[in-house]
């Protein structure tokens, strides 16, 4: 990193930023990562939802109303009537009776499941597998964000270095043009030589503009990933000490601990438990129900009634139209899909390890070649300049040699950047690109904290953070 180190310290120390600081800020403030953490917290709620199957359900009912009863009729009676047979006559009196009442009552019902075909037990285990899978997905997201931050930082560092090299090239070509014009005035070179020098200078200035544009693009990408603007970056420290010692070791570690693979395996566990949950619908279920009720229904003889009951209910499913059987078959196919996805994850991780390992080796060789190329190009440029002074070389030869040196320097800068990015890619493919292993000075996010806060929570609308 000698070239990048020398070029990157061109800015003031107060404005310089480090790769470790960029990774720490991305770990804390990246919105994609924070959204994934919120997703894990939402998944945590699956366990208390599943545990509710062990708990009773309580409901209360209250009713009140107004009732009016209206009765119309005729009341018959007997009177003395000498003309009627037996000396008695019948008469009828009409009446209209209205009675108002206010019936009301209240009751409480408690229902407790005793057995439901092990559905609650398997639902809890499924939810726990989903949570473990969500945590591994979060860990994989953390790796991806840290890698994106490292790549964005190195892009900015590379572009600053390339910009400095191209600006320096403009200064060199300005001196070449000045020298060519002086030699043209004394007749040592032709107007063609000065035109060639001027064309090379204008091309170099165009390359400076392109380098500035690329730098602005990289800085915008850095802000998107890290969440803040970047000043002049410092050279990155090597993380070679954290890398596996061999390709075989890297592959073995990745297959055993990469979060993408572990998340897929937890998905397999959850899918298998989902089969048991569905099949539990075919088993008998036993519920206990206790109720207490008091009513106030005014009548001719009863003003208040109080009742209570405890009932056990055993339900044995016989045939439900085939829905449960279809759901069980569907769950089994889903479990098979999850197992295949786990195999895909293993293959993808292995490919990423091999690719990153090869990239590290290739960029290491490129750095050595670029360093040798710079030395050779510098020697060639010095020789061409000396030969041009005695008329054995033309201005074009000098310009070509200068361009070769510029290309070699840019190749070294790019190779150094690529190697640093490749080491972070290798660390990520193994599953080691974490804040702990990198030693970042940042508060670690612990998903267990929220899980412990909500797991056994029976009641409450507010989240642990007060929302």
UniProtKB/TrEMBL annotation:
Alphabetical list of Gene3D superfamilies matching this protein: Outer membrane efflux proteins (OEP)
Family stated for the protein in its record: Belongs to the outer membrane factor (OMF) (TC 1.B.17) family.
Record's subcellular location: Cell outer membrane
Organism: Methylopila capsulata
Keywords per UniProt: Cell outer membrane, Coiled coil, Membrane, Transmembrane, Transmembrane beta strand, Transport
Primary residence: membrane
UniProt-listed SUPFAM superfamilies: Outer membrane efflux proteins (OEP)
Domain of life: Bacteria
Protein name stated in the entry: Outer membrane protein
Segments forming a coiled coil: 163-214, 360-387
